Amino acid sequence: MWPFHLSLELAVGDDLTTEELADRVIERIAREQELAVSPRVFMNIETLHPGLSCDDLQQKRGRSNNELTRFRFDVVLRKMPSPETTAIIWIDGSKYHNMEEIHELIRERPRRTLGLRHVPNSRLLHFNDSVERQLSPEEPDSISAVHPEDLWDLASTTPYSVKSFWSATRAGYQDVLLQWNDDRVEFPHRQDWESATNIALATQPMHGRFLRNVVPMLRDYIGQRLPAYMLPAAIVPLDQFPLNANGKVDFESLLRSVPGIVTEHGGKAMSSLEEEVARIWAKVLGIEVVGIRNNFFTELGGHSLLATQVVSRVYQELGINIPLRSMFESPTVAEFAAALSTISKSAEAEPAMIEATSEAVIHSLSDEEVDAMLRRLTE
Does the residue 332 lie in any domain? Predict the structure, then answer.
């Protein structure tokens, strides 16, 4: 799920540090409103639903490299106990970088079922390389890789049936089964997927809906019943509090790990103008930190009266006169700062035009007319 959401965030094209990008991905996963399920769920389906077993897991077919082929998969569940399987020895497949080497392996070990772990996957490995290029100043090592569709094509030219699925223990690689005749082999490699506890089982769409819908409703509810000074700066759903080594709440980890909270996880300011706007908003709202993507009204607890104060302070401290409606049209620091920048540039252009026009008028006046104008200005 992490690579999928990372690809979506990279597609936005923002210039972010590695830490900022990771924060964005965490926030995107937390706000996901669609259910995404890990292969681990199906590998262990028997423990969740006795009588069901995972009969097959496969990458999506197709030669195009897109979201569908990179991150989605097909699964076949069997409503009966799994049949007995044939034990095989799994070979290290990381040294097989092209189909010629795969064909050579088949010639060396004919008429037997072969299992290869960690075969370079061109769909994912090249994607991982592009990610590294964006996140690291160093050029990643270029590795030749095998396209899954080339593996499946083996079935049309050899007696083998072919299965290919992502590796659970090595990102950008795939496990491959070259199945001879009717041998039944457990696939994918179950032990790898059972031990991959770092891979989340699924997204939590209700959690995303909670953040999007329930939190603003709850803020409105308590806002009608509590005085302003008692309103919380943030309302954040937590599975549990992060604890430090002493078993106490780790507040630093709390702020760093919770997406959507009123912190830098809303995005750090990228310009001096965004910093000034964030500072003014924090002062008006009575909170310490404002992220550039936190919504003034739905996340930060702002309302029309506070928006009026923001507009007034912006004029007093930055000298930019912006209409109140801009707060509603641009409710995040990033959007509001962009609106201010547009107005500021327009304001700078206006005096320049006036100055140029005045200069042209003065040049058209006679010496006597200029002297008369200057006397009137000094009187």
Answer: yes
* pLDDT given for residue 347 in this prediction: 57
In whole angstroms, give the CA distance from residue 136 to residue 145. Answer: 21
Q: Are 5 and 25 in contact (CB under 8 A)?
A: yes
Query: Do residues 83 and 150 share a domain?
Result: yes
What DSSP string runs through 113-140? -EEEEEEEBHHHHHHHHHHHHHH-SSPP
Cα dihedral: 273, 275, 276, 278 (round 10): 120
Q: Which two tokens stand for residue 295?
A: 């919504």
- Whether 122 and 102 map to the same domain: the answer is yes
| Domain membership of residue 292 as a residue range | 262-379
The tens digit of pLDDT for each residue in 134-189 reads 555 554 456 788 999 999 999 888 889 899 998 888 878 899 999 887 777 777 77
User: Same domain for 189 and 218?
Assistant: no
> What would the DSSP string read from start to end of 173-189?
EEEEEEEETT-----S-
The mean predicted confidence, pLDDT, of the chain is: 77
Would you say 298 and 304 are in contact if contact means Cβ atoms under 8 Å apart? Answer: no
Least confident of 190-194, 222-226, 274-278: 190-194
pTM: 0.56
Please count the structural domains in the chain.
3
DSSP-based three-state secondary structure for 370: helix
**Domain boundary, last residue among 219, 236, 256:** 256
- Do 228 and 296 fall into the same domain? no
